[in-house]
């Protein structure tokens, strides 16, 4: 079972470290065939939404209903963002072309 994306040019499977670099820089060179790969627009959008929407919902719940203080909210933010950055590379798909904005 493959969890990471595969190069659209040569089909080699990427590792977590390369996918993480891709998520930060927006492009990354394939280690096998040396072609530049980009995050596909659709996978980039959905990976962002899958972490952004639950964050807003839980943050608002803690702020409004639980009346959590700012130290707890800041701690929640740090933990949530850390988990999101660790999981986003698993959700991205590769593309040979840069997406148009």
Question: Rounded to an integer, what's the Rg over CA atoms?
Answer: 17 Å
What sort of overall outline do the alpha carbons produce when their principal axes are compared? elongated
Largest sheet report: 3 strands, antiparallel
- List the secondary-structure elements in sequence, H or E: HEEHHE
Beginning-to-end CA distance, first to last residue: 33 Å
What's the β-strand tally? 3
Tell me the fraction of residues in β-strands, as a range. Answer: 5-15%
By secondary-structure content and strand pairing, the structural class works out as: mainly alpha
Extract low-pLDDT stretches: none
Widest sheet, order of strands: 1-2-3
> Level of helix content?
55-70%
Rounded average pLDDT: 85
DSSP helical segment count: 3
Report a brief summary of the structure:
The chain is mostly helical.
Features:
mainly alpha; 3 helices; elongated; 56% helix; three-stranded antiparallel beta sheet; 3 strands; 101 residues
Structure characterization notes:
- The structure is a single chain.
- The protein has 101 residues and is mainly α.
- The chain is built from 3 helices and 3 strands, in the order H-E-E-H-H-E.
- 56% of the residues lie in helices and 9% in strands.
- The chain has a 3-stranded antiparallel β-sheet.
- It starts with 15 loop residues before the first helix and ends in a 6-residue tail after the last strand.
- The model has no long low-confidence stretch (mean pLDDT 85).
Show the helix and strand layout.
Layout (H helix, E strand, L loop, with lengths): L15 H10 L1 E3 L6 E4 L1 H25 L4 H22 L2 E2 L6
